[in-house]
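Box S2. Input/output pair 1.
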Amino acid sequence: MKILLIDPPFYRIFGFYNRYFPFGITSLATLLKKQGHHVLVYDADCNDKPENFDYTRLPKYYNTYLESFKNSHHSVWEEVKQNIKDFKPDVVGITIWTTYAASAFHVAKICKELNSACPVIMGGPHATVKAEEILNISPHIDYVVRGEGEFTTSELINALESAKKGLTSITGLSFRQQGQIIHNPNREPIKNLDILPFPDRALLLNENKYSSEDMGLIMTSRGCPYSCSYCATHTKRVSYRTANHIIDEIKFVKNRYNTTQFTFKDDSFTVNQKRVSQLCDEIIKEKLKINWECNTRVDLVNEDLLRKVKKAGCNSIKVGVESGNPGILQQINKGITHEQIRNASKLFNKVGIYWTGYFLMGIPGETVENIYETLNLMYEIKPDFASIGVYEPFPGTLMFAVGKEKGLVKPEMTLDDFYKVLPNHYYKVDSTRQVNTIEPEQFNILEKEIKNRFHDYNKNFRRLLKRAASRIQLYSTQPHALFGDFKKYLNWK
C-alpha cells in the first residue's frame, strides 16, 4: 500500500524553528517499508528559513496559528494539500500532540476532502490519552493508535488490506464500528528495542532540507520510571537499546549526513548509569569523535558519570528544575530537592559541561511569592541557559485531574474549541485564569516580567560564548552551523 505519514505544521506557521526530523513516524515508516509498503514521511513543520527562536514567547504568536485555518490560500496549507495530491496515498497517518491538535485535525480534514475513501489514522501522545474524544469530535479520523505505534499500525494496515478483517484483535487500537466507539485492550510496550530498525531518514520528503544536527536525533530508550504530575508519559518501565545497536545508528548517520552533533532524546538518559557508562566506553573505543546532548535529572548525575560522558563527547545536558519553592516541587511530584539541584549545578560547572535548566510557573495553587522564589533560584544556580514555561493542563497527567478539582480545567473539548482557543488555553474552564491563587491581570503582568528577565539572562554574551565553545567541534567541520547559530542570536528579539 501507499502510506503517507504526516507530522502536522505548527511552529512553521508562525516562523519558528522546529528542530530535528520527526522521529516517531519515521521509525514507524521504516518498519512499514520493511514489510513491503511504499511509505513517505512528510514533515509539514520542517522550516529551513525560521525567523523566531525565543520559545518562552511562543504564545504571543498563537493568534497567527489560529488565523491560518481561516485562510484557504495559506501557503503552508496549500503545500499540505499539494503533497497529499501528488503522493495519492492509500492510507494516511497523522501525529497529534495536544498543543497542535487543531493542525492535526485540519490535516485529516484536507485528506478527506481530497479522497473521502482514504483511511485516516491518528497516533501520538494526545491520541493515547484522548482516543474517545478524537473519534467523537472529528468525522475525518477513522482509527486511533494508542501507545507505541509500530506494531499496532502495521497490524491495522494488514487488516485494511484484507477488507478490515481482524480489527477487534489489534491491541492499542480504537475505532468506530456500527455507530459505537471500540477501544481494544492496550498493547504491551516493546521490551527489546533492538528488534526495531533505526529510523530510515531517507524516507523523509525533502530530506535535503534538514541540517546534519537535525538528523542526529537518536532514542536509546523508551519510558520513564518517575511520576512528575505535569508529564503524560505513562510507560513507567524503561526499555533499552543495546550499545552496539546505538553505535551502528551513530555510524550510519555520521557517514550519510556528516553528523557530528547528536541528541539522545530519552526522557531521562542516565536512569541506568551502568548502561550509560558502557555506551560511553563504546563511543570512546570506536573513536567516533562526536558530540552529543541529553536530558536527565539532577538526582541522576554524579562527578564520575559526568566526567565519563564528557570524555565520550557529551557537550550539553538539560535538566528540569521547575520551581524554587519546596512545596511546589512536592506538589508536582518531581521527587527532587533544592539541595540536589544546587549540587548538580555545581557539578556541571566543575566538570565543564554546558547545561540548561527548565523552569515552570503558573502551577495551580502557586503564589506570587512562589514564582519569585523560582526566579531567585535561577539566578542562584546560574544555568548556562534557562528556559521558563507556563504550565499547560495536558490530558492524562495527574495535574490535569488536580486542575479539574480546582475548577480550572474541563475534561473535554469540542472540535470548534480546538480551532478557536489558543493552544496554551486548551482545556481551561476560563482562558483568562491560569491559577486559582493569583488574579488574571496580576498573573499576566507577572508572566511578562518573568519571561523578560529570563530572556535578558539568556542574552548574556559570556553565556552565549560558552555555548559556542561547547559546539566548537561542530563549527570546525561545518562552518555554516556557526553562521546558523549566529543568525539565531540576531533574530532572538
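Box S3. Input/output pair 2.
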Amino acid sequence: MRTLLFLFLFCILSFLRANQKDSLFAKLNCSELNPIALNLALQAHERFYDTFHVKDTISIIDFSKTSDKKRLFVIDLKHQTILFSEITTHGANSGLEKATKFSNRVNSHKSSLGCFKTAEYDISKTHDTVLILDGLEWGINHNARKREIVIHRSELAKTIACQYCSYEYIDSLGYNGQSFGCPVLRREVYKDIMHAIAGGSMLFAYAEDEEYKRRTILKVE
C-alpha cells in the first residue's frame, strides 16, 4: 500500500513539475528559446539547487544554434521574464559556424557543456573585467576554472577581426568569431549581463551531444 501511495505521489509531482516547465516556457514567450534546452536547464537547476547563491536567475547557452543567432538567454525565474538574449562565441576547436565538439581538457580550445556556477570577478590584461565559471559536472566541465573559462567582452581594437563577438563580425563573415572556449559577449552588453548573473547563479550550456547524454547525471531524453 505504501509503495502504491509513493508511486502515486511521485507521478503527481512529476506531472506538476512538467506543467510548471511548460508554463514557464509559455510565459517567457520567446521563439528563440529552445524548450528542450530550457527543460534540461531547469532540471540542472533543481539538481544543483543548494550549490547556487543566486537562485532566481539562470542563464542558458544553446550551442545547438549557429553562432550568428542569439543563443545566450538570461532568465528571471521569479518574474518569469527574459532579461537578456544575446549572441556569444564558442571554442575555436568546437567548430566554425556551429559548435559540434566539446571538451573538458586544458588547452583543448573547445567549449564545455553542462551546468556551471558563476564565481568571482577577476581582472584580465586582455579582457578587462571577467567573470569566472566553475564547472559542476565532474568529467564534463569540472576543469573550467583550471582552463580559465570565463565570461568576458570582445576586444576593444577597432578592426572587425578583433571584435570577434559582434554583429559587425557576423555581417562580414556570416558567423560569429571563436574563442579559446570562453563564452564571449559583445562589448556593449557584457557588463550588464555579468552584473545580472554574478555571485553564484547557474549557467547551463546545452547541445545535442551524445557524449554529454551518456556522461551526465541529468536525465536527457
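Caption for Box S3: The two ends are 31 Å apart (CA to CA). The helical segments are 2-28, 35-47, 167-173, 190-197, 210-215.
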